[in-house]
Amino acid sequence: MNRNVLSRRVLVGVATAVALALAGCGGGDEDTPGGGDSSEAAKLSGAVRVDGSSTVAPLSEAAASIYKEEQAGVNVTVGTSGTGGGFEKFCKGETDISDASRPIKDTEKAACEAAGVKYVELIVANDALSVVVSKDNNWADCLTVAELKKIWEPGSKVKNWSEVRSGFPNEPLKLFGAGSDSGTFDYFTAEINGEEGATRADYTASENDNVTVQGVAGSKGGMGYFGFTYYEENADKLKLLKVDGGGGCVEPSVATAQDGTYKPLARPLFIYVSDKAIAQPQVKDFVNFYIENIDEIVTEAKFVPLTAEQKTTLASEFKTLAG
Amino acid sequence: MTATTAERPTVGEHGRALTQRKRRVGDVVFKLALQACLLIGFAFLIWLLAYVLYRGWGRLDSRLWTNMPTSRTSRIDESGVQSAITGTLWVIAFTALFCLPTGILAAIYMEEYADTNKWYNRLLELNIQNLAGVPSIIFGILGLGIIARAFGLGFTVLTAAIVLALLVLPVVIISTREAIRAVPQSIRQASYALGATKWQTVSRQVLPAAVPGIATGAILSLSRAIGEAAPLIVLGAVTFITFNPEGLNSSYTVLPIQIYNSLNRPQAEFQEIAAAAIVLLLGIVIVMNSIAIVIRNRFEKRW
Amino acid sequence: MTSPTSTKVPAAGSNFLRRGRRHPIEGVVQVLLALAAIVSIATTVGIVVALVGPTVEFFREVSIVEFFTGTRWTPTISPRSYGVLPLVVSTLITTLIAIAIAIPLGLGAATYLAEYATARTRRALKPILEILAGIPTVVYGFFALFALNPILQRWWPGDGGPAFQNLLIAGIVMGIMIVPTVASVSEDAMSAVPRSLREGAYALASSPMQVATRVVVPAAISGIVASFVLGISRALGETMIVTIAGGLTSDRIQANPTEGAATMTAFIANIASGDIPVDSLDYRSVFAVGALLFVFTFILNAISIRMVRKFREVYE
């Protein structure tokens, strides 16, 4: 019967296509084998496993992307299990490098010690945690830390801009921010509210900062916070607030994040590298590459670069582990 | 000759009387309501597809599958999702390999061989229904704690395939059971009467008759598996990887995770890539479904 | 009467059939099948094992009374509080909205496909419906947030309107996602109803509507209810849609679907993929909620299995 023959042919055709796709793609990227035989640097192979904060991940991903052009045989993978999840895997030896948007906690340090994992903490970029409001907000330009705390502290009943400062109009306040388990949240609450994890509970929280962007952009009385690069990409929809940390109103920017005048919301971003990981040549090479090319990497990932002083510290810190 | 009066139609006019009977309003409304149900579903699908196509149109080209992802914002236009595509294909192929035979065999056991009066069989039934409702992320936790760590399989394609297979196994079992149940007993009895053994009856009569329902179950379950991000995130599917899986023990990523990751990046072009990747993923789902549909249509029977 | 050595047609009552050509394969097959079924048991055992330890640890520090009666769930925000009711209420609300959409639409679509559509139409339409099931839940989530919600907000009668993230859009989109599950399995069940029943009903001058509602659906009720239960289970356990579109607040019981609130699964997803140090009370709260969810689905399924068994009709 024609129909059966046709359907059988279709079946075979599709199955072949899928098989070809699998075969073609599976073997297609066979990279150059390990061992040195080129005139330049020796060709390495192996894996480098990076995991941790989703804030810092774009940095490590950029590093991996650039590194691949140098050493195509090394398979660098970057995961985003979160700063805490990353440390858990790091201390178990399941990853080589841990991205972190906050320093390692004591409990995590203990876990690493118990597992015999020695590591070094490297600051690889700066970030200016930015507070933003909607483009339609024409009354607020600068807020003091005290005012921010009044808005965001646990149990806060501030529901309207007029309650924030006299002179502000009667506009309902709509709050957006990071979810309670992100490093960004930890940092903001620690700096503004004085205690990590202390915040009012009735704001729109999201893991995805783009959602926060949309939320703030879409409501006149909206306010939110996230990393500087999210503001930069959406500068046409949002208005950046200056923050007065005791020394006058300071606008977040590359410069103020680097020299530390953007208080208190300028924060460092870290990677942690373990001694066991360095023992593998490809990991050591990758980290060296990361450090030597940190400027290019930070630019590609659109983060705030390190100061010269920070760079020197970076190199010397790594030496203490790598020798 | 019509018979719209209360007069009893004669036998010869019976047929015509039926066709000319006034269609009750209720019937028409009912049919329209049913059609509306179908149409609402389709309308939603079309809306969603249109939305995704619109958002991803600019990036819906061969770069998606020829290029690996790159995180360099200066080179976004070179970014593709090849590693995610191959990762998805690898993981789904093995998920199907693990869950389909197991699920079908388990369903056969429960329908044909198990004595439902025994407590352990009833427990089994309850167990499977229960598993069908367990949130996917709990399977992720199970996978992380036991399969990846305790069994030592690590964060690899194999672990992902096992976890996803366990996730959709209940769906396969339940729909296969329904398909087997729908095969009339007369078929089985005729087979026994001809001297066939139980297994011969099952394998040569019941199963082929149940293929359409089994195909449906397979479609639904693999479609679900292919779109799952939550358990794999917990399981450590990396979000950034620039090589294709090199074997069952390889690190991997899948399209839903790439999509989720891209949607988290601020640059607008990443959003476009995400939308284009969604269209691609739907394309893969459609191809998979089509294969199963061909099988289903070929074996379809109405009793 | 056949000679003992002949293997042709055996006489009735002869020993031939009773000795039975019991292939060894029959035994092997039974073992294989039982093993396959045991995989599911192993899965449950695995889940229980993975959940029990941390849950017990959790309840050492948090009183069960507080857990079940408290109305503030803030394990990661100071001041910490561990009353699970807000999560439960949100879960129930989204599930109810989802099945209020999925069951009528799914059953209606299934009835149409099984009773009214021609074979060719059915073959064309059913697969299209099944594509809805293949859309990644992440996509549904973002679609609900960025495409559906703005429309709802614009057309909302009167003041107010849904919040940026809310349970309503999460529920609606979940419902649509579940429609193919309900429709496909119901439709398979209805198609399997023997033609003879339908033809009998038509012969008695029933309309298609009467045939569908009074003959086919009752006959297929086992499969239909199975599809409902599958759908409800899926709604209870859905994670990404509610995380993205439903919201993450859980500081009070939020019964208003136009507001956002975290469901049990959204909470788990949020923490399990986040930054919290793993061996802490906050993280263990994930397991406690997971265990609660597990128990919920267990009870739901025990009830539905009872119901299905009561209604199931067997033909021939």
Question: Summarize this, please?
Answer:
Chain B is mostly helical.
Which key features would you list for this structure?
heterotrimer, A: 323 residues, alpha/beta, D-Maltodextrin-Binding Protein, domain 2, 2 domains, 13 helices, 13 strands, elongated, disordered N terminus, B: 303 residues, mainly alpha, MetI-like fold, 12 helices, 1% strand, globular
Largest sheet of chain C: 2 strands, antiparallel
CATH architecture of the largest domain in chain C: Orthogonal Bundle
User: H/E series of chain C, N to C?
Assistant: HHHEEHHHHHHHHHH
Percent strand of chain C equals under 5%
Q: Structural class of the secondary elements of chain B?
A: mainly alpha
Strand pairing plus helix content of chain C: what structural class? mainly alpha
How many domains comprise the coordinates of chain B? Answer: 2
Largest interface summary? B-C, 105 and 107 residues
Secondary structure: number of strands of chain C: 2
- Kindly state the number of beta strands of chain B: 1
Low-confidence stretches of chain C: 1-19
Alpha carbon gap, first and last residue of chain C: 34 Å
Portion of residues within helices of chain C = over 70%
Oligomer description: heterotrimer
Number of helices in the DSSP assignment of chain B: 12
C-alpha Rg of chain C (nearest Å): 26 Å
Computed Rg of chain B: 25 Å
Q: Using the alpha-carbon principal axes, give the shape of chain B.
A: globular
User: Mean pLDDT score of chain B, rounded?
Assistant: 82
Kindly provide the name of the CATH class of the largest domain in chain B.
Mainly Alpha
How many discrete structural domains of chain C? 2
